[in-house]
C-alpha cells in the first residue's frame, strides 16, 4: 500500500509539472524544444553583455537565424539560434554585471549542447599603451571584486579574518587606501581609516571534482587553442571614425596578458593606474571573469574579445568617451568575433 501511495504521488508530480510548468522548472514541452535544438548541435555559445553590443551581430550579413527555431526563451533569457560564418551558434545577452553574466552562461551550458564559448563586448582601458577602438584578447581573467576588508590598525603582517580556516589569504596582494590620500588643508597627511582591502580568489566547484569540495581560482586562462588561433586576427579591418570624429590611428587587434572584472564601472585615473601596475591589466569590464569562471567549472573552452571604448578615468587627449565610442568599439569587437569564428573548425 505504501508503495502504491508513493507511485501515485510521483505520477501527480509529473502530471502537474508537465501541465503547469510552474516554479521555474523545465516543462516537458520545453525539454522537447531543447532536444530538437540540441539534435542539430553542437553549437558555439556567444555571450554578449548588452543590447548595443548585440545589435551589430543581429544586423550582420554573416548571421542567419534558424529557419525553424530562431530562439528559445527560458528563465528571463532569450537564446537566439542560428548560423554565423557557417558555424552553428546560440547567442545570449546577459545584461550588466557578474551575476547576470554568470547566470546566463550557466544556463547556456546547462540547457544546450555547446562545444565552446565566445564572449565579446566593450571595455574600459587600463593600459595607456593602447587607444580607443583597439580590440584586446587577454590570456587571463580575474575577478577583482572579491575582497577581505581589513580592520583599521592591522597591516600586511596581520592575519585576515578567517584566513586560518582557509577562506581567505594574503596571496594576491591588497589595495591600501592611504596610498591615495590627499594632503589636508594644513599640508599634513592623515591616516585613512578605510585601511586595506585584500584581493581574493574565487571558490569553484568543477564538474569533474567532488561536490561541495571547493577549489580556488584567481587567474583563469582562456582556452589555449582559441588563444593561439587569435594570432591570426591581427589583420582584421577595424573602424576608426564615428561620423566625422576619427581616432589618431587605425585600431588594432592585440593579444594581451590580463584583463580584470568587477561590478564597478571604472572612471577613475588613480584606480585605473593601480589596476595596471598591480595586475598588468589592459581591459576592465563587468562580465568576462564571470563567464570565464563558469566555463572553468563546466570545463568548456572559452575566450573573451573586448574592444576598448575609453581610457578609464581619462588622462590623455582622449578622455572617457565611452558613450560616444561605444558603437565603434562594439562593431570592432564583432568584426573580430566574426573572423575568429570563421577560423574555427566545424
From TrEMBL:
Biological process annotations from GO: nucleoside metabolic process
Gene Ontology molecular function, alphabetical: catalytic activity
Entry annotated with the keyword Signal: yes
Gene3D superfamilies found in the cross-reference section: Nucleoside phosphorylase domain
Signal peptide: 1-24
Keywords: Signal
Keyword Signal attached: yes
One Pfam family per UniProt: PNP_UDP_1
Lineage: superkingdom: Eukaryota
Domain Nucleoside phosphorylase: 44-341
Protein name: Nucleoside phosphorylase domain-containing protein
Amino acid at each position: 500500500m505504501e508503495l502504491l501511495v508513493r507511485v501515485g504521488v510521483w505520477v501527480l508530480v509529473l502530471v502537474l509539472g508537465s501541465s503547469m510548468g510552474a516554479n521555474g522548472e523545465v516543462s516537458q514541452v520545453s525539454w522537447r524544444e531543447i532536444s530538437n535544438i540540441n539534435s542539430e548541435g553542437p553549437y558555439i555559445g556567444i555571450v554578449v553583455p548588452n543590447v548595443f553590443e548585440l545589435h551589430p551581430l543581429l544586423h550582420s550579413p554573416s548571421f542567419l537565424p534558424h529557419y525553424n527555431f530562431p530562439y528559445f526563451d527560458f528563465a528571463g533569457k532569450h537564446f537566439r539560434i542560428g548560423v554565423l560564418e557557417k558555424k552553428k551558434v546560440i547567442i545570449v545577452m546577459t545584461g550588466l554585471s557578474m551575476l547576470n553574466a554568470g547566470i546566463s552562461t550557466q544556463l547556456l551550458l546547462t540547457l544546450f549542447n555547446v562545444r565552446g564559448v565566445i564572449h565579446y563586448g566593450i571595455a574600459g582601458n587600463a593600459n595607456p599603451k593602447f587607444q580607443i577602438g583597439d580590440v584586446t584578447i587577454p590570456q587571463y581573467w580575474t575577478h577583482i571584486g572579491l575582497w577581505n576588508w581589513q580592520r583599521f590598525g592591522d597591516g600586511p603582517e596581520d592575519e585576515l579574518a578567517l584566513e586560518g580556516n582557509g577562506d581567505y589569504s594574503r596571496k594576491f596582494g591588497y589595495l591600501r587606501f592611504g596610498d591615495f590620500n590627499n594632503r589636508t588643508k594644513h599640508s599634513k597627511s592623515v591616516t585613512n581609516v578605510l585601511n586595506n582591502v585584500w584581493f581574493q580568489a574565487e571558490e569553484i566547484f568543477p564538474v569533474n571534482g567532488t561536490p561541495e569540495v571547493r577549489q580556488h581560482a584567481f587567474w583563469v586562462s582562456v582556452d589555449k587553442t582559441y588563444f593561439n588561433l587569435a594570432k591570426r586576427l591581427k589583420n582584421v579591418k577595424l573602424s576608426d571614425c564615428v561620423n566625422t570624429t576619427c581616432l589618431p590611428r587605425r585600431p588594432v587587434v592585440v593579444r594581451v596578458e590580463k584583463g580584470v572584472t568587477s561590478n564597478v564601472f571604472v572612471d577613475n585615473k588613480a584606480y585605473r593606474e593601480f589596476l595596471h601596475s598591480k595586475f598588468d591589466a589592459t581591459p576592465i569590464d563587468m562580465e568576462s571573469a564571470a563567464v570565464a569562471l563558469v566555463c572553468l567549472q563546466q570545463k568548456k573552452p572559452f575566450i573573451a574579445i573586448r574592444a576598448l571604448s575609453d581610457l578609464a578615468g581619462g588622462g590623455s587627449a582622449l578622455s572617457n568617451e565611452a558613450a560616444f565610442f561605444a558603437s565603434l568599439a562594439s562593431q570592432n569587437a564583432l568584426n573580430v568575433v566574426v573572423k575568429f569564428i570563421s577560423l574555427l573548425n566545424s
